[in-house]
Amino acid sequence: MFSIEYFIIAVFCKVDELLKEITQTHRVRAKGFAPALSDSEVLTMEIVAEYQGIDTDVGIWKYFRNHWSSWFPSLKSRTTFARQAANLWQYKAMLQEKLAEQLGAVSDDVHLVDGVPIPLCYLCRASHCHSFEGVADYSYCASKKIYYYGFHGHLLISGRGVITQFALTPATGDERETVWDLVSDIHGLLIGDKGYLSQSLQYDLKLLEIDLQTALRCNMQDSRPRSWVKLIVQVRRLVESVIAQLVGRFHFAKVWARDMWHFSSRINRKILAHSVCFWLNRHSLDPLQFENLVSP
To answer: pLDDT per residue over 118-134, tens digit each?
Structure first.
């Protein structure tokens, strides 16, 4: 368990280490002056705030200005902070990929895939919503039994719960089509729900040494041993737990953005924050138990 002070220090040290490694070949800025607040500080502020449930740019800026101004003396205006944070959207994804690699997520022999709805609004208000026109779309959320307008997130995690890949599509995005954007670097067992049920998909993935296993519909005969099917269902709950963390702690399903630039930055920092928390908690019996990561 970390105190909040040591948590901030630990996050900064890891982020700074990874960012220095990445920027050796991918410079953040080709020209111009470096900002007063370092990129590592901005990313640290975002991750620490996300862990605490503070997920808006103005909320993050206010929290650190009011409580940690002596630790981040170069923190200037809110707009400057928000712009710098949004400009780092690609580097958040690269940092997360590095962390997933260090945690052995890509090389894991077991992966799980699932989707998560990201609504901009529900059907009763959709006619008044003009955000992301031409990008978002209408769909049906089976878990909430409601139609919505927005996006659909597609998540791939390792057998330990580390986020390996993520893809974003309009709400009508086909899970079976999008899975190809997630599995290019993995092999072994891939467990999905009934939304990934497809003999042709299973056959095509087999050619890539990926064994797709899903539960079958009630009207379908299952020749697999019951114990194996039961195990698949139990293991698949892990991806549901990770999605519940993203939605609950990190407010993943809240958009709070009006363009893809800021939206991509928000999505990437939430996934990065989840991976950083897992890395800091990796030696515990349950690395996904984030509640006790920081002392109250």
So the answer is: 998 876 666 666 778 88
